[in-house]
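Review session, final week

We close the course with one last complete record, chosen because it touches almost every idea we covered. It is aralkylamine N-acetyltransferase, a protein from Glossina austeni with 244 residues. Go through it on your own first, then we will talk.
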Amino acid sequence: MFSLGNLKRFNFGISLTIRYFAGSKSSKLKLEYRDISREYYPAVLKHLTHNFFVNEPLMLTMAPTLKCSEFMAYADKDTLDMLGENFSVMAVNGNNEIAGVAINHKVSSGDFQDARDQLHTINDENYRKLLKLLYDYTLEANIFECFQIDEYFELHMLSVDGKFRGEGIGKHLINDSENMAKKHGFKLMKSDATGAFSQKLFKSAGFEVVHEVLYNEYVDSNNKPIFPVAPPHTKLQLVCKCLD
């Protein structure tokens, strides 16, 4: 097994899919938005396990095998690495229950290529094929050259608990993440919208599509989709917003 420390947080590359899961809509919900501090790390991992990884469109294509693989060990380690950068934000209710999170981190020029070069060292097949898609499509976008930058702020994962749907949490977390990026002097904010809902949300927040991959065109040697994502999700979009 390769050292996760060497690749840092670039192993698990899905930046975002926001999903509103089954659950009753709350009314007059009072939420507090704050930075994610260390004491919340275990609760954040639990939230992602029960809300993001079991419902995200790409993950659903691998669901039957995820429980018996190393996938979650990789993902949890990468999430903790990103949380340690202190760029991530969350929403909590009056009972201190996490309603939603935005996991953010910095990406520097060369990071994805370095990680791409080490894909062969990853033992988990699902993790490896997911990263190959994400790395290749990100490198194709050539973000650093196109925007003439050396680093950017990435909203890596956005997750909202279904019990709190309809409260505008996703929109608020994107806005808070953007403010975090500006506070730290980033000129560009980027994310990967893997589903129809997140794509609509980012468009409304002023993000533009820089690159995309249609799931039914990303195929194996037998011309079968590697990720047979179910409708209404049809494509992976790389979205960016200039912060100047």
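Two points worth writing down before the exam:
The mean pLDDT is 89.
Strands lie at 32-35, 89-92, 98-108, 151-160, 188-193, 208-214, 235-242.
Good luck, everyone.
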